[in-house]
Hints:
There is one protein chain. With 392 residues, the protein is an alpha/beta fold. The protein folds into 2 domains: 17-263, Rossmann fold (3-Layer(aba) Sandwich), CATH 3.40.50; 265-329 and 350-390, no CATH class. Helix content is 28%, strand content 20%. It is built from 11 helices and 14 strands. The chain has helices at 43-54, 107-120, 173-180, 199-204, 226-233, 239-250, 265-281, 305-312, 315-328, 371-375, 380-384, and strands at residues 19-29, 62-69, 83-88, 91-97, 123-131, 154-157, 169-171, 186-192, 209-214, 257-261, 296-297, 302-304, 329-333, 360-361. Helix 1 packs across helix 5 and helix 7 (265-281) runs antiparallel to helix 9 (315-328). The chain is globular and about 65 Å long.
Amino acid sequence: MTMFVGCHKDDPEEEDPIAERTVLIYMAAQNNLSYWPGSGYRFADADLKEIKQAIKNLGDDHLVIYVDKAKDPVASYDDHKPYLLHYRKGELRDSIPMDSTAMACDPATFKTVAKKAFTDFPAKDYGLVLWGHATGWLFKNDTIASYTARQRAYGGTNRNESNQGSGDLWMNIPMMVKALKALPHLKFIFADCCNMMCAECAYEFKDVTDYYIGSPAEIPGLGAPYNEIVPAMMEKESFATSLCDKYAAKYYNQVPLAVVKSSEMASLAAATKTVLQTMKASDKLDQYPNLSDLIYYLDRNLYDMNHFIMTYASEAEYDSWKQAFDKAVIYKKFAMKWDTMNHVSFYDFSMDETSFGGISMFIPQWKLQSTDNQYIKKFGWYYAAGYDSVDW
């Protein structure tokens, strides 16, 4: 199959000096983020407009955007055929039509697009932005061999190019990581989508990126303020903290965020395994733990990691574990509330900066009765963090 049907402009890009950084924004918008039924909001278009406002500050770095939108009910707005945009030095350098049969949720599409972006627009380091719908590590089906198995994790896509709902086809995290392992190592992955800052994803991504950035919670439909974070993403040293600061400020600190240092995730998993085994030995985990009043995200599927360990470990155990946690979760932005599926504030758990960790983890709740208890076994975190050793 021929993936690309366009070409670059005539001026050869290799005449320019190699860039410091290339960032790919992978915009999976073949869903209601293109056009929200009933409201008329076009979140993808709004973010593309913000990006255009930011390119004047881009400099020599490459910004590449893969855009895959749904059909728009208004003909003059409809541009649902996938395309690739390339910005450099304050201008649009390339606009490349892509294979119209490709879907953003397909791991093969994801791999091919990323490979093209990083090969055609080389740099000293690379960043990736995951734009779209997501549900953290979760997926609906235990088959991971094909994206057509209705997995649910990232990149919800409607096979009929409709803007109804969040998508009926999804890409799970292990398939995404498999694709990324065939590409240049990334400086960062920024997940501008709901619930992706979880221990399971951070551990899975640890071998393909230096830093992992995102929110453990649901985020607003408009997502990050790209007019401000595009320049932040190109900062050489402070990109992660700057990105979080500008994102949180946009929504008056109502979007919780965190930055994970990937090289510390193995140590955090080992520390978690130790504390879970100690808790098990002290009979604290003989039954599934009472999770009432714990900070949760996504309708009680994902619980704040720090709050859970703080609640069930002894003070000494927690202090020891927290040292590994602080080395892994190197920055976080606290929030008292955030968007939910019902757009309400939380009243069923307490919330403060001490308990908030900024990263979630799955905690099994019904032994051998929940399908999630089985699906979690597909992730490296399950074994590295010792879930199997406490009979979860």
